[in-house]
Amino acid sequence: MSKTIVSIMNVEKMYGENHVVKNMNMNIAEGEFLTLLGPSGCGKTTTLRMISGFEMPTAGAIKVQGESVEKKEPYQRDVNTVFQNYALFPNMNVYDNVAYGLKVKKVPKKEIHERVMEALRMVQLEGFEKRRITQMSGGQKQRVAIARAIINRPKVLLLDEPLGALDLKLRKQMQIELKRLQKKLGITFIYVTHDQEEALTMSDRIAIINEGRIEQIDTPVEIYKHPKTKFVANFIGETNLLDAVVLEVNGDTAVIGTEVGKAMVQLDPKDKIAVNDGLAVSVRPEHMKFSKTPVDGFTIKGIVKENIFVGNLIKMMINLNDGTEIRVNRFDASDLSEPGELVYLYWDLPKGVVIKEKELIHTDSVKDIEGGDPDEEE
Amino acid sequence: MKKSEKSKRAKLANLIMQAPLAVWMIAFVLAPFALLAFMSFMTKGPLGIIQYKPTIANYKEMFNPVYATVIKQSLVVAVWTTILTVLMGYPLASFIAKVKAKTSSLLTVLLMLPLWVSGLVVLYSFVILLNSSGVINSFLMSIHLIKEPLELLYNNFAIIVGMIYMFLPFAVLPMYSSIEKLDPGLIEASKDLGAGPVKTFFKVTLPLTSPGIFAAVILTFIPCIGYYMVTDMLGGGTSLMIGNLIYRQFTVSRDWPFGAALSMVLALIIFLMVFIYTKLGGDLDDLGA
Questions:
Q1: Do residue A292 and residue A205 come from a single domain?
Q2: A33, A79, A197, A198: which has the fewest C-beta neighbours closer than 10 Å?
Q3: Which pTM does this prediction carry?
Q4: What is the ipTM of this complex?
Q5: What is the dihedral sign for C-alpha B86, B89, B95, B97?
Q6: Which CATH superfamily is domain B64-287 in?
Q7: What range does the record give for the signal peptide (chain B) (predicted)?
Q8: Which residues from A are below 8 Å from B192, CB to CB?
Q9: Is B185 in Cβ contact with A89 (below 8 Å)?
């Protein structure tokens, strides 16, 4: 990866008693599209506001281009922001809004004109110069906000849920346009959103934040395929999570016991998993398989509850005997089990992602449990 | 059929509910105003009797240099009061808008406190404060800062101080409401784009809070130009304003037609200012209308 442009080092943020950002460390590369993704209140916007200078870290340091920014006021920083609610100046027309950053820097009029026109062309708003902000639609306001932020040619552009207020169709369109614009300008984008699909579509890397901590920072594919924590597995896409304890380790595979039966997983030697360790297995609905006859190594059984047709696929809901609902996506309608039928669940070993977390469950309670009999429920 | 009956009844109910206010407005606002307008075109008879002979002499009379001085004096006092009130009130309003909700409501109450005290009492206390042997002068002399007492009372200075005291709360409230409505995101956006605090204030904050400032101007200038109590008590009868002049026409001079004509001119100035205010995009609700 190319050189680091923003580094966040041991940053903490407290609001009184409220610990909003906890020991955050992150390096963002030049030209990168990095998304801060997390549920609302997780500290992602606070992180962004510390980079822009509207909030001060309680501890730690933030560097932009190797330079500590703590002592710089927001108006002295080489970053610009696209605000969540656009924050366009209602007393100015489109042209004056976009020109604002250059006007306050006393750039010659002729150059301002050229650069405003260029910025408006870039967001496809030529001919809208004289429009009042109140006459613009949501999508158009969004474009003005982007044009206004990129006209200063910042090193880093911060975007705080910029598409949050747009309808779904427009949002999808703007996602693609933003990504295209970012590539064209070569500016580093730091993008805040709570929409995981948006994050997956646009980002080079995603930092998943939960309760003020970075849970995982990786490429979208890596995050989807190899979530490192249960939170990440749950937050990105749909998944089936099973808590388990390791019963046996045989080289690079292990037998695990869950509340509802035994299963097998593949181990990564780096995880150094030993017998009696607690872990969780994440299996995506498209990777969860079932069979009407028992499968070697797996004793998890369930009753098919429902098959839901959603167009390109069929979503199956399978109930385990402890009440857990397992979701299975099938793309082939001819290969289903009917509701009420007993099925054995299994997965191809590489598709069961092991998440190592300590003290998930008490080891004693699961060790001797066999598959149980889901039939008794009915 | 049923529907139209229903709407008829709703209309009737509406009418009944609005009637008391309408009667009040007609009896005590519109009718007196019409009477005043009518009177302003009549002739003053001997002993202050009104003679019903139409004339425009009352309006012509205003161009008499004596009265022109009064009008000029009124404008000088009103303009200065307005400028100073707004200049002092704006920082106060923005301070009240910035503090926590609890503190801001406490400050608002404190701001309104002088309005609960009779204006007469307030103005007497100014006499005590400002007169040549008053609190301020005796203090300054006791610390030997001055040898002779300063002339603080019975001049324009005293009048303007009194006027500011009277109208500051009315000026602060509309400015407070427009500063409070200002989206803090816009200030951040301005700073984000590289504008320092001063540029941000003049390019964003000030233009966007100008309706509040204009409302404050209206709410200070209009009552100020017609207010006669302050001039009477702190001006020592040496200077007259339109308000005093009108008051005298109806009392001492017993020239009601001329008083009516002056009132019409004053009303016209007020209408004109409100008209300009609404033309500039001002909201009548912000004036308490």
A1: no
A2: A197
A3: 0.77
A4: 0.78
A5: negative
A6: MetI-like (1.10.3720.10)
A7: none
A8: 52, 74-75, 79-81, 149
A9: no
